[in-house]
Amino acid sequence: MAVLSLPLLNHKRLSLRHLALTGLAFTLFYIIYNSFLPPFYPGFHQPPPHRRPPVSWKSNTRPEEWARRAQAVKGAFIHAYRGYEKFAFGRDEVMPLTNVPIDNFNGWGVTMVDSLDTMLLMGLTEEFERALPLVEQTTFHLNDTLHAPFFETVIRYLGGLLSAHALSSEPILLARADDLGRLLSPAFNTSSGFPAYAVNTVSGQTRGPLTAILAEIASCQLEYLYLAKATGKKEHFDKANHINHLLESAALGTQYGGMLPVRWNLTSGTPWDGSAQLSVGAAADSAHEYLLKQYLLSGKTDKASLEMYLRTTTRIITSLLYLSPTRHLLYVTDASVSPTTTSPSHVFEHLSCFLPGLFTLGASLLPLDNLEELGVNWDDIIDGAGAGSGRGASGKGEYGLTREERARWRKVGRYNLKELHMWVAEGLGESCYLMYADQKSGLGPDEVVFNSNYKTSTGSTHTGGNRVDGSRQGSKGRPGIGWGVGDGDGIGEVDDGKWFDVVERWRRSGGRGPPPGVGVKKRVVYDDTEKSMGPYPGHARDYLIRKTEYLLRPETIESIYLLWRTTGDDRWRERGWLIFEAIERESKTPTAYATIKTVHTDPPRQDNSMPSYFLAETLKYLYLLFMDQDLIPLDKWVFNTEAHPFPVFNWTLTEKNLFGIP
Ligand SMILES: *[C@@H]1O[C@H](CO)[C@@H](O)[C@H](O)[C@H]1NC(C)=O
Ligand SMILES: *[C@@H]1O[C@H](CO)[C@@H](O)[C@H](O)[C@H]1NC(C)=O
Ligand SMILES: *[C@@H]1O[C@H](CO)[C@@H](O)[C@H](O)[C@H]1NC(C)=O
Ligand SMILES: *[C@@H]1O[C@H](CO)[C@@H](O)[C@H](O)[C@H]1NC(C)=O
């Protein structure tokens, strides 16, 4: 893609008439520009800017066509599930290129259990009734050499059973869920009470390192809470409750700047003392997601989770969101933190693409523009994130907010938070979609790394439009500079592409036009002569692909679904259809669907795997996206991180007394 350069005036002889006409044109342009854009953004002493509500885009696709598209997704599910039934029924997954079964998740039929609620939503009662007897017979036993990975077993099996029970009221499913919850519970037999990595369901023996990973210890509360609600059993409630207490006290006590770090000490139940990492991607993702979702599931009563969600999202906004230098794509990355610095890796993961969905969910279901109504005081939110003092009394670093970070948090509190969160949702959603649209296959890679060289590429302030100077200082002929992992800038440096700082400059200079990183961007598809894997000056995409696989993952489609449902903007729906078409074109095999090894080649290469989440999540969200009927209203249901919906509930007085809920 060519970088536009400004037409040079000295190509033509300037006459007075030219100048007068140009002046008139500029004046007219200025008047029109200002009358179409929101009024001057007045700064913080005025009431918050009331931008006109975004006009949601309506596509020309007719209702019958959407209905047809939903049926096409149902057809894809049937194709995938038939392949599983034919070659691997009762086993975990079918390998789609060789048509042989594989037991990679305990051998209890993970594809079947993960798919039950999708079948119910799609009205596939025959498939459901063929599966039910097998589920009924499942004992969840393992021979003594094997251990069930706790996290995956909870989100896929326990989540799948509970959700299918909620949708069908079939008692067998709840009985099996109750069994499984109990058989897995020895995993909590660690000194801290956080679950171990894996557990044998017969002996209760646990396995796994003593340093655990956030997502794996803190993404089971929705399942155990709803299990407690559905069975009335305190033992299940206690599991979730204990984890929440640990997270809460760790967050308040060690103060990692408001966000739970990735690595934890299973013995002490506190963050690991070694180097700290903040991430919304692999190893962390669903733990952050569950903060908001627990609040929603339990009828918006769990205020501690809500406050942790607000701190986490603020830390994400001020520390982990960046803009790319040329296209101004908004992306979220992970960072290693020390008491005084936060160093972003500039890696952007497919797994992180659930985040736009989470932000739009929170912004649409919570009165974020009226924190009082939520019972939240912004100063308490900031104080709860702690103050970093460089060196703590313990001699170890204290990881609270640095002075600059604190200042950013105060500024965040003065924005209309609902609006700010929507900008994040829409900007990130755009980038997640473009990761697909940029590839010839139409499918998104698992990981990219962004050019972090924001300053040299953009000059001073920039809020959109084309970059003027295409050169990237110091990088000519030296591939790798500005692209590497861990090559981040410390907090406090101005103009390193930190999104919030650019938004602040945009606001201070009048806040005209869409906020930085928000709005529709063009795709950049490389032709065959361009290398998609090597950096070079003028690299038009702003990123390199680091992991070329598309693993049939759901995150981008999940966010597209939530963005469409919450904003009504059909643009998201049309994009979801493009992605589904790409899946049909590139992933479909004669018997099922296959993951993709190389999204950047034409044609892409397939791999011999069909993860169960493809049926549980990817196809479910696509189906819901094309159905006009709102089968799972977001204010009445909460999806677990494997897309299994649980109904929102209130604790009754009896339950409160029994479980000890204040
Ligand atoms: C336990 O499972 C392992 C791995 O599947 C297998 O090799 C072994 O024979 C099994 N042992 C028993 C006693 O079934
Ligand atoms: C919990 O672990 C301890 C030792 O670590 C063991 O003695 C005990 O039997 C275990 N309890 C269960 C229920 O597995
Ligand atoms: C975890 O915490 C315990 C108790 O505080 C401590 O003895 C142990 O060294 C810690 N382990 C690691 C890996 O940091
Ligand atoms: C929970 O309680 C609130 C307030 O009492 C009520 O408005 C809401 O409908 C209840 N939700 C459910 C699912 O019962």
TrEMBL record:
Keyword Disulfide bond on entry: yes
Q: Name one GO cellular component term.
A: endoplasmic reticulum
Catalytic function, reaction form: N(4)-(alpha-D-Man-(1->2)-alpha-D-Man-(1->2)-alpha-D-Man-(1->3)-[alpha-D-Man-(1->2)-alpha-D-Man-(1->3)-[alpha-D-Man-(1->2)-alpha-D-Man-(1->6)]-alpha-D-Man-(1->6)]-beta-D-Man-(1->4)-beta-D-GlcNAc-(1->4)-beta-D-GlcNAc)-L-asparaginyl-[protein] (N-glucan mannose isomer 9A1,2,3B1,2,3) + 4 H2O = N(4)-(alpha-D-Man-(1->3)-[alpha-D-Man-(1->3)-[alpha-D-Man-(1->6)]-alpha-D-Man-(1->6)]-beta-D-Man-(1->4)-beta-D-GlcNAc-(1->4)-beta-D-GlcNAc)-L-asparaginyl-[protein] (N-glucan mannose isomer 5A1,2) + 4 beta-D-mannose; N(4)-(alpha-D-Man-(1->2)-alpha-D-Man-(1->2)-alpha-D-Man-(1->3)-[alpha-D-Man-(1->3)-[alpha-D-Man-(1->2)-alpha-D-Man-(1->6)]-alpha-D-Man-(1->6)]-beta-D-Man-(1->4)-beta-D-GlcNAc-(1->4)-beta-D-GlcNAc)-L-asparaginyl-[protein] (N-glucan mannose isomer 8A1,2,3B1,3) + 3 H2O = N(4)-(alpha-D-Man-(1->3)-[alpha-D-Man-(1->3)-[alpha-D-Man-(1->6)]-alpha-D-Man-(1->6)]-beta-D-Man-(1->4)-beta-D-GlcNAc-(1->4)-beta-D-GlcNAc)-L-asparaginyl-[protein] (N-glucan mannose isomer 5A1,2) + 3 beta-D-mannose
What Gene3D superfamilies has UniProt attached to this entry? 1.50.10.10
GO annotation, biological process: carbohydrate metabolic process; ERAD pathway
The answer, when asked if Cell cycle is one of the entry's keywords, is no
Spell out the InterPro entries in the cross-references: 6hp_glycosidase-like_sf, Glyco_hydro_47, Glycosyl_Hydrolase_47, Seven-hairpin_glycosidases
Residues binding Ca(2+): 641
GO MF annotations in UniProt? calcium ion binding; mannosyl-oligosaccharide 1,2-alpha-mannosidase activity
Which pathway does the UniProt entry assign to this protein?
Protein modification; protein glycosylation
Documented EC number(s): 3.2.1.-
Q: Which PANTHER family match?
A: ENDOPLASMIC RETICULUM MANNOSYL-OLIGOSACCHARIDE 1,2-ALPHA-MANNOSIDASE (PTHR11742:SF55), MANNOSYL-OLIGOSACCHARIDE ALPHA-1,2-MANNOSIDASE-RELATED (PTHR11742)
| Protein name, as recorded | alpha-1,2-Mannosidase
